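Researcher: We are triaging several targets before committing to wet-lab work. For this one, the compound of interest is LPXRUNBV. I'm pasting the protein sequence and the ligand SMILES. What I need is the predicted three-dimensional arrangement of the protein with the ligand bound, expressed as structure tokens, so it can go straight into our comparison scripts without reformatting.
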Amino acid sequence: MATLFVENLTVVDFSYLHAKRGMVGESWIVDLELSGDLDAQGMVFDFGHIKKALKQAVDERVDHRLLLPGESDLLGLHRRDDGHISLEWRYLAGEIRMVAPADSILELSGTAITKAGVTLYLMDLIRDSVPDNVTEVRVVLREQDTGTAPFYHYSHGLKKHDGNCQRIAHGHRSGIEIFENGRRSRYWEKLWADRWEDIYIGTRSDLEGTYYVEDVPHHRFRYDAEQGHFELVIPEDHCYLVDTDSTVENLAEHIAEELAREAPGKRFRVRAFEGVGKGAIAEAGEDNPGRAKAGWLQGSSVL
Ligand SMILES: Nc1nc2c(c(=O)[nH]1)N=C([C@H](O)[C@H](O)COP(=O)(O)OP(=O)(O)OP(=O)(O)O)CN2
């Protein structure tokens, strides 16, 4: 019997529904251990297969989905004949309603989405995907270690994306680094982490109107994309509107421009993460009047 491990098998970026927080974007790094007898090649299971087949299984079932606690009284879920679902989530601040292709959600057992529940789900999924000589599967889910640096949880949908990011309710746990006149500013980082805590970032042109639930205003977003039709109703005060698609390049640029507007005469550099290990850089302010530079950053340093 031998045990092998794979760290960072993948990162699952998703959102889930919470009884108090509403819709929460999350990013968990997936680590894996497999135990069993050695096969004819002298291996528990070929790393090549693990990194392809098991990563693909985890990504397909969890990544970019909205996770729902199937046994919660707050949830109403309806599967429609056209391959879409509609759902309602009645929580503390109001209601969340969504219409989306059925692959946009993952219904899990239990009354709340927890790390333990998702871990058990993934262990079952992986057990079904490994050969018979593998007798034990262990999964560890963990957040990126950002030390004391701030982060926010956001959800969004990119209607023009040719992959699963077009899903209207998927999200990320993202660090933010802000430099004011070349020096790291914990003040501004904390301010944006608070501003975007558990936020839905919506694109103004996807906004169809306001919907009232017992006098509480809710935004209604709606678009059609390659995978199907998407609608989302969510309390207005859990939303932040931007004039662009909510790509991380645009979000970094938006933050930099807002900072330059809020603190005139200063120069800002923003490193905004999208989940783990990637993001965008933008600059705005005194040295760069009226213009922000943005770029895609892959494999950026850990905060
Ligand atoms: N240049 C950009 N590319 C992508 C952006 C972006 O803002 N700028 N955004 C997305 C999606 O929002 C998506 O949620 C990112 O998810 P992620 O899982 O990190 O990306 P992949 O699916 O491409 O990577 P895997 O690690 O293989 O899941 C996509 N691209």
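Researcher: Any quick observations?
Model: The pocket of LPXRUNBV is lined by residues 10-11, 13, 59, 63-64, 158, 161, 165, 170, 247-249, 274-275, 296 (CB under 6 Å).
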